[in-house]
Amino acid sequence: MRAGMILGAGLAGLALLAAALSLVWTPHDITQMAIAQRLQPPSAVHPFGTDQFGRDILSMAMLGARVSIAVALVAVGIGMGAGVPLGLIAAAHRGGWIDELVMRGNDLVFAFPSLVIAILITAVFGPSAINAIIAIGIFNIPVFARVTRGGALPIWTLDYVRAAEVAGKGRALISLQHILPNIANLLIVQGTIQFSLGILAEAGLSYVGLGAQPPTPSWGRMLAEAQTLVTLAPHVAIIPGLCIVLTVLGLNLLGDGLRDALDPRLKTLR
Questions:
Q1: Which of 27, 28, 132, 225 is most open to solvent, judged by the fewest CB atoms within 10 Å of its CB?
Q2: Domains of the chain
Q3: What is this structure's pTM?
Q4: How far apart (Å, rounded) are the C-alpha atoms in residues 255 and 136?
């Protein structure tokens, strides 16, 4: 699994590097169309070829990485920022009406997938990357709330936590000082998983036109625009597809490796 973690870190790091590099440099200007060079195969000038408008696919893939990673990262931040406190509150009031209210609220959000939430949001505010972030972030909240609550409940039964309660510490202070540090490994692993799912969700939303809008590149929209060109110029569809697959694969391998490295029970088994 260590080899898988290294491979995953390498693939994820490559996507992050491409996204960071696109902030200051891309091989070509994607706002300039060159119809005479449309659908060119990979070459020394255009390593990934050109699209139907003559734009450099490598440059578009780099900018698409920035959009996909930014959307997924902010969405995970929203989910973690709201879901973790809710999970801690639910666990601290386990069995009570607050716990029940939080969990039934989570069930309500789970009833609407991120795509449905995105459709509802864009019906009111219009399609954009911001609305995609909101939709994916809302869907992430109950995920982190459940993981946090599930990890926190067993810790509340431990002797040192009960001793802290007897000593007069409040539930909020115990949650911050004793519960949260002991479930940080779970949250890190879940964050990695949701990051990869966020990239997939962003690609799916962009594919159906609910994510980033032109002229902002997106891996999902690149796939949507290339679907009629697969037989004519397959590289136009293969490149963004590989970007999505390799990035998500890398993050999943990294998440598995982090789980094995951070879970003390797995260390004991080894």
A1: 27
A2: 2-24+55-269 (1.10.3720.10)
A3: 0.91
A4: 19
